[in-house]
């Protein structure tokens, strides 16, 4: 079956997720800069989540340009990813509103971990559709870039109860790793 509807639906859901996140940011009461200062955790949480959702959208887009067709398993794998991404406004808001308290930072990390698991499953479903000897499978290769977030988010989630700043640094480092679109799929998008 065609991949067009999956891509359009995913784009719409991701746009809504980003919209909900920005709408959760409350306008400060006051006209001076000191009224903004207490909102810095909310803003930092939003920026981190905006970048992460943007990274998922960008890499999802590039990956699906390398895909020829999808199946029901791929549709469900994609919905699984969208489910965990759709929790980002909640986990982002809770983390920011509570000034990076350990439990909200850990829950945020658990959500990121589940997003990474879902993306990994989606990639595996796409390999199954196209075959292990396909060009798509060859582009995925050993998928070290897909495995690093799994370990990193799991460690960072546990570390939130020890030091939230280390957890946040790991979340940001993984985002930096993925910031440049997945080069494994770049040749497919230029064609």
Kindly list the characteristics that best describe this protein.
mainly alpha; single chain; 0% strand; 191 residues
Describe the structure.
The chain has 191 residues and is mostly helical. It has one domain (4-190). It is 75% helix and 0% strand. It contains nine helices and no strands. It has helices at residues 4-23, 40-65, 72-86, 88-97, 102-130, 135-140, 144-159, 164-179, 186-190. Helix 1 packs antiparallel against helix 2, helix 1 packs parallel to helix 3 (72-86) and helix 1 (4-23) runs parallel beside helix 4.
Q: Rough shape? A: globular
Structural class: mainly alpha
Radius of gyration: 18 Å
> Would you report the number of β strands?
0
Sheet having the most strands: none
How are the secondary structure elements laid out?
Elements: H1 4-23, H2 40-65, H3 72-86, H4 88-97, H5 102-130, H6 135-140, H7 144-159, H8 164-179, H9 186-190
Helix pairs in contact: 1-2, 1-3, 1-4, 2-4, 2-8, 3-5, 4-5, 5-7, 5-8, 7-8
Give a short summary of the structure:
With 191 residues, the protein is mainly α. The protein contains nine helices and no strands. The longest helix is centred in the middle third of the chain and has 29 residues, at 102-130.
